[in-house]
Amino acid sequence: GKTAVAIDTIINQKDSGVICIYVAIGQRQGQVAQIVATLERHGAMGHTIVVAASASEPAPLQYLAPYSGTSMGEEIMETGGDALIVYDDLSKHAWAYRQVSLLMRRPPGREAYPGDV
Asked: Does residue 14 fall inside a structural domain?
């Protein structure tokens, strides 16, 4: 599916000078390990940063993972480099945001998600 396309895109950036950032949000640790193994097997880890907040991590860490990847990408951009960021998957980020918002006692909106989602 979409993850396979994203991984193929990262692999194909090998000789382009692009630094790739793969942000795994709320995935099983075994799945992230498989993705890293695939990237290693194709020689793509030399130009790839993996940010992982697995399903077993607390919701605030899953919420912050995309922002960490974005910060890294912005740093690469501001130093004159090119970056590709893959967020996998943002629906888990929305779930983590929902959990954090409920803990902060923000009023829930539709389907108990915060009104700004």
From this structure: yes
